[in-house]
Amino acid sequence: MVSAVVMGAPQQPLEVRDFPRPELEPGAVLLRTLGSEVCGTDTHLWKGQLAGVPYPIIPGHVSVGVVAEVGAGAEARDVSGRSVEPGQVVTFLDVVGTCGRCWFCTVGHATTRCPQRRVYGVTLSADDGLLGGWSEHIHLGPGAHLIPLPDSLDWRAFLATGCGMPTALHAVTMAEIQFGDTVVVQGSGPVGLCAAVLAQLRGAGRVVVVGGPANRLATATAFGADDVFDIADTTEADRLEAVRELTGGRGADVTIEASGAPVAVPEGMRLTRDAGRYVVVGQYTNVGDATFNPHLDLNQKHLEIRGCWGSDVGHLHRSVQVLDRYARQFPWTELISREYGLPEAQQALEDVLAQRVVKALIVPRH
Amino acid sequence: MVSAVVMGAPQQPLEVRDFPRPELEPGAVLLRTLGSEVCGTDTHLWKGQLAGVPYPIIPGHVSVGVVAEVGAGAEARDVSGRSVEPGQVVTFLDVVGTCGRCWFCTVGHATTRCPQRRVYGVTLSADDGLLGGWSEHIHLGPGAHLIPLPDSLDWRAFLATGCGMPTALHAVTMAEIQFGDTVVVQGSGPVGLCAAVLAQLRGAGRVVVVGGPANRLATATAFGADDVFDIADTTEADRLEAVRELTGGRGADVTIEASGAPVAVPEGMRLTRDAGRYVVVGQYTNVGDATFNPHLDLNQKHLEIRGCWGSDVGHLHRSVQVLDRYARQFPWTELISREYGLPEAQQALEDVLAQRVVKALIVPRH
Amino acid sequence: MVSAVVMGAPQQPLEVRDFPRPELEPGAVLLRTLGSEVCGTDTHLWKGQLAGVPYPIIPGHVSVGVVAEVGAGAEARDVSGRSVEPGQVVTFLDVVGTCGRCWFCTVGHATTRCPQRRVYGVTLSADDGLLGGWSEHIHLGPGAHLIPLPDSLDWRAFLATGCGMPTALHAVTMAEIQFGDTVVVQGSGPVGLCAAVLAQLRGAGRVVVVGGPANRLATATAFGADDVFDIADTTEADRLEAVRELTGGRGADVTIEASGAPVAVPEGMRLTRDAGRYVVVGQYTNVGDATFNPHLDLNQKHLEIRGCWGSDVGHLHRSVQVLDRYARQFPWTELISREYGLPEAQQALEDVLAQRVVKALIVPRH
Amino acid sequence: MVSAVVMGAPQQPLEVRDFPRPELEPGAVLLRTLGSEVCGTDTHLWKGQLAGVPYPIIPGHVSVGVVAEVGAGAEARDVSGRSVEPGQVVTFLDVVGTCGRCWFCTVGHATTRCPQRRVYGVTLSADDGLLGGWSEHIHLGPGAHLIPLPDSLDWRAFLATGCGMPTALHAVTMAEIQFGDTVVVQGSGPVGLCAAVLAQLRGAGRVVVVGGPANRLATATAFGADDVFDIADTTEADRLEAVRELTGGRGADVTIEASGAPVAVPEGMRLTRDAGRYVVVGQYTNVGDATFNPHLDLNQKHLEIRGCWGSDVGHLHRSVQVLDRYARQFPWTELISREYGLPEAQQALEDVLAQRVVKALIVPRH
Question: What Pfam family is a match, any one (chains A, B, C, D) (predicted)?
């Protein structure tokens, strides 16, 4: 039997349940889970803030495991086309089922908007099997996008940034940072921290983080942020003035929103300079409206705003390369505040909700 | 003496005044005006809705004239480097003084945000001379950006689209329309009509115009719009439903706002499909705020929004080429509803304000 | 039984053979062929100039047919997700098997370089069934990318441009033509002619076609080319001088190679202005090397060169929209020189080889 | 009097001559030179390999000085609009005279192709004054683009990369490196070394340098290159095989040519993967032709090639920000092999020619 954490319904206590070990289809893969992250999405799931979630679910979308078994009759291949073998340490794209045939997949080239896509730990039901990472084993059907971790990359280092890294990598790619740019990041959770790191790996001239609480801002500084502003201590006017002072009166060349607060969006428009770029990646759930001035905040500013949704195989694959290559420079594992066993998952969720931790991992004790 | 229309102050009647014929600096140019457009900006100027206007001014920013004289001691050269000679029919960029030295000019490559730029007919004072187009003559200092009209291009055809064409050309360029895209244009004034034409010259698969009144929508149809919706007859919900029906439920690939109404902006976000693009060019004055939902209208949509401000030499130069090349296909002069002499300028302004005309020209009778 | 043209081996006479009507897999589609184009690729196939071709093959990659049957047990859906029903007139992407899983599909986002892709009429064998268009029926497996033709689009109009249109649409998209640009197209076959048309649907200010023979150049002129140069009558030096004269001495803003001659490539670099763009789409087979000067022809010119290979669902889908929308402007069917029955396929091939025709169609008589 | 090094004619020994201290125009600036780089261009100048050089010249294009005097009657302003005052340490763009009015400046937005541009130390004559950096003082006319060095940036650190940094920054910007990409740099001179550093500041997953001699490759490794290949020890076939092995058989995602050898260009095409990007920046002089296969090396590869010429104010400004911000990570001054006084300039030139040094500086002893 396989133990897994189940979220039966919003606001209900998590439970550990036993599942039968699955029969594998040809080319399917069973992972023995090394770890799985706890992410802000998991708190949204628990609060019931996401539509279309087929509770009960096994949470956990970004995970790492050892290949325990490959379903007989077909090979499993990684993204580079190599055969995947038992004993390998791999991660996988949490998104499955992207159809490759619909208008968004083939004409729009916007695969993160494919209506067929489903997400491990989010939109796949525990009734259908081990389809989430907070579990001793994870069942990956044929065609899952498998990415081996390089030997030089500690699996904890990979999980330390969790889905924050591919999400931020997508956002920072869309931000088109130029060498020497001043980049403001709104939000200091995992996505914001990763964006602040990645801005440095695009040659930003100055990286400013607006967020809180203090422990997260201290982490931002430790990971290279040049300036931090705590939203608890400063007003929007303070931040506007500070950013303008840092930029010769112009404002940020690029701003990246990773906060989740609607009010951050018009502030971000104003923090950005004329003809600058603003990427909004943090508005993952609907928590209300925002008001702005189309003339002053958008048109006269010649401002570009890009909403950024989801991530694809490329973002995850590139995240692995970046985490591996720049581990000499950034001590990823220091982002992990605490590891929790399966029975401690409820505690993990509450610690994340209370922002007592930067990154929490679920690590099944096998 | 030279007669010119003077707008002495907001809301005051226009007057025709006499000015001395100017002494030309070396390389300066004196134009004998053939015509000058009346544009929505002129109505904003008259209502006092623009900041930083040094009344009294001679209105008229996009104009055509015959070169009457070149200031002795230096050549005047056009944008292609050829000498400009008396007798040539030319237009010129209304924007002058862009410094080429500031951060926006040299590092930001956003010349339309250069703080030194001034605009003929808008931010140059009648106290400083013949610096607007509603005048028998126009005084262009050394270094003005001169663009000859090709012999094959009627000057009235050029003025028929006025500053709407370079403005729309800038916006449509930023819209990055792909072949076969469905393009929605919000607004049916000169910028919107030009955008609807230019969308066809980007290979759009369908062009939809949302605006009014009926005479402008009829013009849109005559110039190739596939569908028009009158805002007087339809609600936002009607328009959303109609556009979705035209696009297999997805929404417009590209939307271009050229209406000036703040409420059009959140509507435009919703009219656009997931991963589509929205260009906002019409919010030229501050007439209030707008409210939107950052999660639904921006982030989850993976929407790109681009504010578009001003136009540069390239936009005007390219407009001349397009007007000339595609005159066989689009009967530009039909956009001109009426021509007015200098003493009729007040009437022209009122006709534009009341939307009784599509395009009005000021044509001095020499 | 189903009659189809078979190319048994390079340089061997084509034959008409009978095939059994196939059993359809669930969701597969059998088309009754209305027509299929004869394209330059077919002449390359017959001359044996392409590697990896599994002779015998049924030629014909871009085709139109009526849905005769859908394999029971699953729906067939078009690119927009709608169910495809018997009686509909559809085309389909000739490329099948793109895997959606390899590095090029998922990380590189370069699906035309997916190693799994196969092409109807080119890299699929007649031993495996009705997998080419010069046949009374065409067998499309489950998952083929089906695109219905709009009622307003004559199937002959669609076939008149054949695979030239999606190929040119890909190239012209990569060319990033700006409004008013001077565009030179090298080559006046179907790809070149389509590129010359599409350049006008990007708002080019002038379209110049370099090619031959005279009948094709006459077609180019009829389809809107502003200038044509016959390579039989002019030298490279003549053409360089002529293009510079047309462009104020600068050269073309954009050049598109669609000729297939290696020597055209260095000439194209020189025809293009400094900081211009050059798209090479016509070098479909290896017919030798070319020599250029890296300093003068590339680096000092600040030239951008883009090789363009293959086309995807989006290019075909957009081609259908463009052909339909702009049929009022371009008389597509006039490109068809002659239609041939299946037994006349050899003659069709020879007429294309001799450039006696612009576009030849194979039209089975049912 | 002011001492300066004069290159009287190609292949003639350099001399130190005395010049009168210049009278300054209003807003002009006289710098007391702190240092000026010796660059490969200076060796080309001395060998007479560049066209249009108005010998005699004072060499030295990238230089740093202290503001000694500002011409009375007008302010001198830096790129950010601040007044420049005596005592400040500044650098300046070597390019002056870019007209801001021609087609390339205004329509083409390709200012590095403006025909009016002149370059300090290259295309300005010593007969016209102190217009090069190998001099005790440098005379900057009104309108020169001045960029102050931040207090935190040692002027030697700035000069250590010389014009290699803005040149490489331009090239790497055009290379559009994505996170995790494998980047191959051809050439290990200052431009190549800077490109290898900047690739890391774009988040490359692996940086490979192909060049020589051994001391430069050792520097490349010290500055973070993951792999180096000495062209003296390896063949093109060796390098192709090695790069393919490092990239799962695909080739480099991005290749940057900074070698100056024509034969490097076709090799670079082959080193790059299908649908990859190749930037050619090193072919600064005409030293012969190259041969390639348009089908295999360009079209079928779907390869993008970008020639990169010159640099502008933005590239220099951004270079200063990057050198300052990432000085904690890269020990710039270690690139300086030796400093030479004015009388030693001939020796400096010969050491650079013989590749005995990585970077040589001319440092006048005041």
Answer: ADH_N
Q: How far is D350 from chain A (nearest CA, A)?
A: 34
| Residue among D113, D275, D287 whose CB faces C274 most closely | D113
Answer yes or no: is pLDDT of D111 > 90. Answer: no
**Closest residue in chain B to residue D115, using alpha carbons only:** B81
**Pairing mode of beta strands C272-280, C227-230:** unpaired
Which ranges of chain D would DSSP assign to H, the alpha helix?
A: 40-47, 103-106, 155-161, 164-175, 190-200, 214-222, 236-246, 264-271, 313-325, 345-353
The residue of chain C nearest to residue B179, with distances taken between CA atoms, is C318
- Mean pLDDT of all residues belonging to chain C: 96
Is-contact D191 D183, C-beta < 8 A? no
Half-sphere exposure at residue A74, Cβ-oriented, CA atoms within 13 angstroms = 11
CATH class of the domain at C164-307 = alpha beta
With beta carbons under 8 A apart, name residues in chain A contacting D321.
Answer: 179-180, 205-206
Smallest CA–CA distance, residue B175 to chain C, in Å, is 12
Token pair recorded at residue B333? 């002069």
Closest-CA residue in chain D for A206? D325
ipTM computed for the complex: 0.96
Which residues in C lie closer than 8 A to residue D170 (C-beta atoms)?
Answer: none
- The values of phi and psi at residue B132, to 5°, are -160, 165
Cβ-based contacts under 8 A for chains C and D = 136
Secondary structure of A121-147 as H, E, C letters: CCCCCHHHCCCCCCECEEEECCCCCEE
Q: Which residue has the tokens 């209105």?
A: B59
Q: Which of C103, C283, C301 sits opposite D298 (nearest CB)?
A: C283
Alpha helix segments (H runs only) across chain C: 40-47, 103-106, 155-161, 164-175, 190-200, 214-222, 236-246, 264-271, 313-325, 345-353
Indicate yes or no: CB of A248 within 8 angstroms of CB of D81: yes
Residues B293, A289: C-beta atoms closer than 8 Å: yes
Instruction: Decide if D129 contacts D57 (C-beta within 8 A).
Output: no
Is D103 in contact with B109 (Cβ distance < 8 A)?
no
Cβ neighbours for B249, distance < 8 A, ≥ 6 positions apart: none
- Is residue B180 within 8 A of residue B118, CB to CB? The reply is no
Residue pointed to by tokens 């030229």? B284
Fold topology of C2-162+311-362: Quinone Oxidoreductase; Chain A, domain 1 (3.90.180)
Which residues, 6 or more positions from D162, have their beta carbon under 8 angstroms from its beta carbon?
A: D37, D39, D62, D190, D359
CA distance, residue C319 to nearest chain B CA (Å): 7
Largest CA distance in chain A: 64
User: What's the rounded Cα separation, in Å, for the pair A240 and A278?
Assistant: 15
C-alpha dihedral, D56 to D60 to D62 to D65, nearest 10°: -110
Local confidence band at A232 (pLDDT 50, 70, 90 cut-offs) = very high
Name the residue ranges covered by the structural domains of chain D. 2-161+311-362, 164-307
DSSP D13-29: PPEEEEEPPPPPPTT-E
State the amino acid at position D150 in one-letter form: P
Find, in chain C, the residue whose alpha carbon is nearest to that of B165: C179
Which chain B residues have a beta carbon less than 8 Å from that of D79? 101-103, 106-107
How far apart CA B109 and CA D105 sit, in angstroms, is 11
Quick check: B79 and D317 CB within 8 A?
no
pLDDT tens digits for range D113-133:
888 999 999 999 999 999 999
Average pLDDT over residues D329-345: 96
B347 Cα to chain A: minimum distance (Å): 29
Q: Which residues in chain D touch residue A203, judged by CB atoms under 8 angstroms apart?
A: 198, 201-202, 322, 326
CA separation for the pair B275, C336 (Å, rounded): 38
The topology (CATH level 3) of D2-161+311-362 is: Quinone Oxidoreductase; Chain A, domain 1 (3.90.180)
In angstroms, the CA C242 to CA C199 distance is: 19
